[in-house]
Amino acid sequence: MPRALIVWGGWEGHRPAEMAAAVAALLAAEGMETVVTPELSALGSPELDRFDLVVPLITNAVVEGEVIKRLLAAVRGGLGLGGPHLPVTAFRSSVDYHFLLGAQWVAHPGGIIDFRVDVVRPDDPVMQGIASFAYRSEQYYLHYDPSIEVLATTTFDGTHDPVVAGVTMPVVYKRRFGAGRVFYSALGHSPEELAHPDGRKILQRGLGWACRTRPGA
Fold it and tell me: Residue 35: beta bridge partners?
């Protein structure tokens, strides 16, 4: 059975403990064993080798550089990493962490708004059978690595900040990092959002793709 480590912490506005419980339930439904902890140092634990997937549900926060270095080494060695919404907001001062993740959050003009998620890779197994859909949440504006494989996007209309009018931004992406796989979905600002049918399906499939040992294998 694949094992997932869910690490939560940082700013309470994202309700990380509740998010961790919701993601744990989602992964358990996919046949994964989950371990949930608020200890950020777990991201650099030697025990990482016993896991197939790590999900960092953290906003801001600070952790020792050695922890991040060990996390990078684990993913390079085959550990999967992924999650909804929060990972791009974690460890803002760690360039190594964001090099691994492939993106960093910088803005969400207008806060909670209505926007459209456009599926750009309907052929990808993560997105298969999912059409573009309307969504209400924070429309994340990212600084991102051009090497990521974008699966879905959103386009800013400029209503809340004309500077970003017409900009198309990744919402869902995946990438490879050495022998490991990284998956990210910007959807899921709150635990309630994880009930959105398309958003939930994308997250389930994406985390399954990132997992070192595939669920059901």
Answer: 5
